[in-house]
Design a protein that fits this description.
The protein has about 220 residues and is an alpha/beta fold. It has seven helices and nine strands; from the N terminus they run βαβαβαααββαββββα. The termini are far apart. Bound molecules: flavin-adenine dinucleotide.
Length: about 220
């Protein structure tokens, strides 16, 4: 049995960021990841380029959330787009802002984003356990008992950052939902936001990744 002060489940952007920002007295922090390596979804984000944030003022950005604006307002003001850019730049990741206000790593390579997060974690002495699928959580007197397929962990604080269930091959498979429910939490019904369209005999595969402006005239 291994003991930590903080255990984070999931090595996606949320879990890795939680580890990077953790500020615990004993610095005994670990991340558990079910896949063989961290950040699988992060690596495919923005077609492998990773659109980090947007450069428009938070006030204007909030309007894009429609009726959900209230839900994210507090978060977006607590850690603004400018804070995120400053965080990455001060940790050695240069960023670039495109004319459409999208912010990317200057290298246009999501691997550099992942490596920056892993480097910060490493400096803080955070342990990362891959191939460690969480199969159970038990609440105990002084914290939590977390079991994986091959180990068990005791922790004072637990952060669940296991993502959604939209892309199982990246690890977001919803396998934590029933475990979270078993702890007494309610999972709100979820629905896909962005979905791929799968077609047969598609003749334009070579055009994949090209974005066009609304009402743009394409000479045929
Ligand atoms: C094709 C694509 C392109 C995208 N492009 C962008 C973009 O350019 N910019 C942007 O901001 N967002 C983008 N997104 C969205 C972004 O990738 C997600 O919002 C982000 O990855 C969510 O982070 P997360 O850490 O919450 O979850 P995830 O990235 O899903 O990470 C969760 C982690 O938890 C692990 N896990 C799950 N269950 C368990 C378990 N039982 N035990 C142990 N580990 C577990 C998973 O293996 C996974 O590694 C894109 C998404 C897709 C699919």
């Amino acid at each position: 049995m291994r003991t930590y002060e903080l255990l984070i489940i999931g090595a996606g952007p949320a879990g890795l960021a939680a580890a990077c920002f953790s500020n615990f007295e004993k610095h005994e922090v670990a991340v558990l990841e079910q896949k063989s390596s961290p950040g699988k979804k992060l690596l495919i984000a923005g077609t492998g380029q990773c659109n980090l944030t947007n450069a428009i003022p938070t006030k204007d950005f909030l309007d894009k959330y429609g009726p959900n604006k209230k839900f994210v307002k507090n978060c977006l003001y607590k850690f603004k787009n400018t804070d995120l850019i400053e965080f990455f730049e001060s940790n050695g990741l240069k960023t670039t802002t495109l004319p459409n206000n999208k912010v990317f790593p200057e290298s246009m390579n999501s691997k550099d984003v992942l490596n920056t997060l892993l480097r910060i974690m490493d400096k803080k002495g955070v342990d990362l356990y891959c191939e460690s699928k969480v199969t159970g959580i038990q609440i105990i007197d002084d914290g939590y008992l977390v079991t994986t397929q091959k180990d068990s962990f005791k922790t004072e604080f637990l952060c669940i950052a296991s993502g959604g269930k939209s892309y199982p091959s990246t690890g977001s498979d919803g396998s934590m939902y029933s475990i979270i429910e078993s702890l007494g939490h309610k999972i709100n019904p979820h629905a896909p936001a962005l979905t791929p369209i799968i077609t047969n005999n598609f003749n334009f595969t070579s055009c994949a990744g090209i974005g066009l402006k609304k009402n743009c005239n394409i000479p045929l």
